[in-house]
Each structure stands twice: as structure tokens, then as C-alpha cells.
Amino acid sequence: MATKDDSLDPALLELAKKSLKKKRDAKEFLIVTLAVNAILVGIWWFTTPTGYFWPMWVLFGMGIGVMFAYLDAYTVIGAKPITDEDIRAEAEKMRKRP
Fold first, then answer.
1. How far apart are CA 36 and CA 58, in angstroms?
2. Model confidence over 40-97: pLDDT tens digits?
3. CA angle centred on 27, ends 25 and 32, rounded to 5°
4. Sequence-distant (≥ 6) Cβ neighbours of residue 41 within 8 angstroms
5. CA-to-CA distance for 33 and 52, rounded, in angstroms?
6. Distance of alpha carbon 64 from alpha carbon 33, whole angstroms
7. C-alpha distances in angstroms, 54 versus 27, 37, 48, 76?
8. Measured between alpha carbons, how far is 4 from 14 in angstroms, rounded to an integer?
9. How far is CA 43 from CA 15, 49, 55, 57, in A?
10. DSSP secondary structure letter of residue 3
11. For 31-46, how does the pLDDT look when each residue is reduced to its tens digit (9 = 90+)?
12. Rounded to an integer, what distance in angstroms lies between the CA atom of residue 21 and that of residue 44?
């Protein structure tokens, strides 16, 4: 049962929502990647099983995408949000440039 907790900061709740969406998207991307690659390997198997394994390029490319999706969702790569303080500090740096 979901209950509303008014003691949580709305900004924190928004960050939690974005984090959950990233995790769900990473899992969905993994499932799509597995399905696409299974189809391509099946096509390769039934057409030229002893020939050049061309699906490796798709496996490799989509694997890189899955890796970055999981790194973004489950590590600190995408964890730090941009704060107002970060924006002010960057604006101050830009103002001081000649």
C-alpha cells in the first residue's frame, strides 16, 4: 500500500523518480538487446552457420549501449544532479573570463 510521506523533499522525490526510470529503461534496453541479438544469431545460424559471424558487430555495439545504460542507472556516473550552486559557480567562472 502506498502512503504519502510529506516529510520527504520534493526535489529528492523527483531525483528518486528519475533514478527508478533510468533503472527500468536499462532493464528494458537489455531485454530488447537480447531479443534483437537472438534473432540476428538465428538468422546467421540458418543462413551461413559456418561462415563469417557477422552478428558479432551488432552484439558488440549494442553491448556497449547496455553497459553505459547500466553504468548510468546503477553507478555514480549519472548520480550527481546539477544544483543551483553548480549553476551559480559556472556562471561566476564565465563572468570572470576575458
1. 9
2. 999 999 998 888 999 999 999 999 999 999 998 888 776 677 777 888 888 888 888 8
3. 90
4. 55
5. 21
6. 11
7. 25, 11, 10, 34
8. 14
9. 42, 9, 9, 14
10. -
11. 999 999 999 999 999 9
12. 34
Sign of CA dihedral 7, 12, 18, 22: negative
Map grid coordinates 527508478 to a residue. Answer: 20
32's CB contacts (< 8 A; 6+ apart) are none
The predicted model scores a pTM of 0.71
Whole-number pLDDT of residue 32? 97
Tell the residue number behind the cell numbers 533503472, with chain if given.
Answer: 23
The pLDDT of residue 24: 96
Helices and strands (DSSP H and E) totals, the chain: 3, 0
DSSP state of 12: H
